[in-house]
Amino acid sequence: MEKLLCIGCGASIQTEDKAAVGYTPQSALEKGLETGELYCQRCFRLRHYNEITDVNISDDEFLKLLHEVGDSDALVVNVVDIFDFNGSVIPGLSRFVSGNDVLLVGNKKDILPKSVKDGKVTQWLTERAHEEGLRPVDVILTSAQNKYAIKELIERIGQLRKGRDVYVVGVTNVGKSTLINAIIQEITGDKDIITTSRFPGTTLDKIEIPLDDGSYIFDTPGIIHRHQMAHYLTAKDLKYISPKKEIKPKTYQLNPEQTLFLGGLARFDYVSGEKQGFTAYFDNNLQLHRTKLAGADAFYDKHVGTLLTPPASKDLAEFPKLIKHDFTITEKTDIVFSGLGWIRVSGIAKISAWAPEGVAVIKRKAII
């Protein structure tokens, strides 16, 4: 059977994997073959609804795309998730974009407590970007979901691109597509900079959004970060790790040799130090349980899937075992469970943090 290609983006049409390039439902495939207009679902939604949906591509395809970005003279808009900065960093991005300007966009600003000032978050993101080798020309905070600071972002892109193309890059789950949809809505609502009827045919790895001066905004697919918690949960349980509204921090006074369970997903052991407060920043729906460190292993084995959820008992067979990470803390520090949230440690302490095998746990300078 001859290979079927999307006439919008050139991707090979497939009906198996909704998150992968070229997906189209079987019914749409049959209709497209009849009419001779065969589009993947992503292009179909773009053409008919001005909606961009994220797709996932392999690491090799993403590397090829980054090389293309590096070889062009463009403004790179790197979208990161403020709530999960470490899980949304693109490894080696600084090498690939070498000579190009990078505008860092911290999305999901609305998730942080309102008491946290924008200036502090911007400074914190700048410092973290520098640690990753990135030197952004500016940092802007937005909330794609709430349309926060979208106008300001568009204006800044206009100032910084200086007639050049714009590449929007980010890992999956950072809200990149929601952000681009908000930009399209903002622009087309005011003046006809983007001609919505002519999102053109493009290559399989990016979507071109024409601007009025002949340049383009290129939306690129998201790269998958293997160490994010999302890859180990069912679709139903993703709500526990993807906050949609402001998180309410919870502070626990812990003595040494006490443990906090983060549902059944992770565990925080206070091994030694003075009695002190630990502040947890997780989705408001995630239940935290305190117990003694001495019996924590048995407590987990007995209650995971019931008292300690997610994961649900029926999903336990697929859920990885928890792996221990040890930390010695000497200053205000966040212990971050990648893609889940973090616990702020204020005083001197020895900590063991447990997360599913494959999920990163790191310490960083406290964001709050």
From TrEMBL:
<dbReference type="InterPro" id="IPR027417">
    <property type="entry name" value="P-loop_NTPase"/>
</dbReference>
<dbReference type="InterPro" id="IPR019988">
    <property type="entry name" value="GTP-bd_ribosome_bgen_YqeH"/>
</dbReference>
<dbReference type="InterPro" id="IPR030378">
    <property type="entry name" value="G_CP_dom"/>
</dbReference>
<dbReference type="InterPro" id="IPR050896">
    <property type="entry name" value="Mito_lipid_metab_GTPase"/>
</dbReference>
<dbReference type="Pfam" id="PF01926">
    <property type="entry name" value="MMR_HSR1"/>
</dbReference>
<protein>
    <submittedName>
        <fullName>Ribosome biogenesis GTPase YqeH</fullName>
    </submittedName>
</protein>
<dbReference type="InterPro" id="IPR006073">
    <property type="entry name" value="GTP-bd"/>
</dbReference>
<dbReference type="InterPro" id="IPR048422">
    <property type="entry name" value="NOA1/YqeH-like_C"/>
</dbReference>
<dbReference type="Pfam" id="PF21516">
    <property type="entry name" value="YqeH-like_C"/>
</dbReference>
<feature type="domain" description="CP-type G">
    <location>
        <begin position="63"/>
        <end position="226"/>
    </location>
</feature>
